Amino acid sequence: MSIPISPISLPVAPALSAVPSAANSGSGASFQSLLQNAVNNVETANAQASAAVSDYMSGGNQEIHSMVLATQNADLNFELFMQVRNKVVSAYEEIMRMQV
Amino acid sequence: MTAERQRAEVLVENIANADTTRTASGGPYKRQDVVFESQDVTSPFSSIFDAQMTSQGAGVGISQIITDDGPGDRRYMPGHPDADKDGYVTFPKVNPAEDMVDLLGASRSYQANVSAISAVKDMIQRSIDLFK
Amino acid sequence: MLDPLSRQLEQYMTLLSVRQKLVSSNIANADTPDYRTKDIDFESEFREYLTNPLKSAPNVTDVNGLRVKADGNNVDLDREARLLSENAIRFSVASNLLRGNIKDIRLAISGGGTNS
Predict the structure, then answer these.
(1) Would you kindly state where each structural domain of chain A is located, as residue ranges?
(2) N or C: which end of chain C has fewer CB within 10 A?
(3) Is this complex's ipTM strictly greater than 0.95?
(4) Does B119 touch chain C (CB under 8 A)?
(5) Closest-CA distance of chain C to residue B90, Å
(6) Which of C15, C19, C109, C116 would best serve as a mutation to test chain A binding (most A beta carbons within 10 A)?
């Protein structure tokens, strides 16, 4: 039985850091910071991409290739975030399974 | 491109009328020429092309068309219906050879402009391909 | 997320795009009296970017050493045509490299296969 983790909200982090010490005590903090890092990157990249696309659409001085790269960058950050989330979820589930 | 094309049109008209001794307004054909001027361009192309082509450069347009009002060539042809009382006919001051050379130049410039548009369009396409 | 080399490629493409706009301007004004050919010093602008990525717009300068025609215009169509091709080719190379980089990063993220 696993607690469903929503990708955007952070309240999952305290639950992870409450994992008993079968895992080493640093792992809760590092799960949290991994996810936090990934979310921050996604938010920054998305903001930059949105700004670039807006500027492009309203006829500003935005170069097309820069705008495309900004959106690709946002995509890559998001894909990385999804992978990190998946790994964190499966690691958490595995740890939970260890508790007999 | 529009400017070069207009220039070509004026030159062709000059050459075609090189021997016109009588026009609708009376008198021989008067040679015309165009004056180019760097201008900001409002282009009928899409706004993408506009932003790419003109945001850091200068367009060009025709600022005026000059008519040569100087005296034409006078040739002695007493039997000609347009001859004046001395037997001279006034022909337009058009040198077809000179205008022909200018026409070739305008054509070459026009071609260069076509190449430029094609190159920029290709670059835009490649930028879009980064999405793949 | 995009690695530094990709950022450099992006800036390279931006500079090429700026240069191409100037070449297009020069071509459009090939018969305009008193028009002077414009360009940027590509190599030094790019090198400046490598040391200072936040540098803003490049300097547009006049080009020396061009023959001035009787109407004051100094555009050399051969030079502009050559630059047109060169810029287009470089842009194409850079965009291909960039596309490859993006693919590689995506591959690295997904680990090349499905993981549990």
Answers:
(1) 25-98
(2) C
(3) no
(4) yes
(5) 30
(6) C109
